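Work through what follows:
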Amino acid sequence: MHYKVLIADDSMFMRQLLKKAISSDRYTVIGEAANGKEAIKLFKRMSPDIVLLDLTMDGINGMTALKEIRRIDSRANVIICSAMGQSKIIIEALQNGAKDFIVKPFFNELLPALDKVIK
């Protein structure tokens, strides 16, 4: 099975790094957003299987985008991928519906997190 992934991160470098890390026979990046507003708009339009979402972005931040995406689709598979790895923030993200939380730059956990979410 092939899964569609949306990446939302304010850093183009980080979006490219994430895209390279996950692009495979199993996952295809179908969209990239530079902020939460774009992420929400692309989520509505593209219906990705998984969203990789940064927390620190201009305008609508990742936590707000997470809440809005989960309001649109309560079954949305959102994985937070952020350098902000404090336990309080991780707990808040998980309580708001994130399926997992990957602390940048530890991307060796990324593919196992994606695989876990789709099972």
Q: What stands out?
A: The chain has a mean pLDDT of 92. The chain has one domain: 3-118.
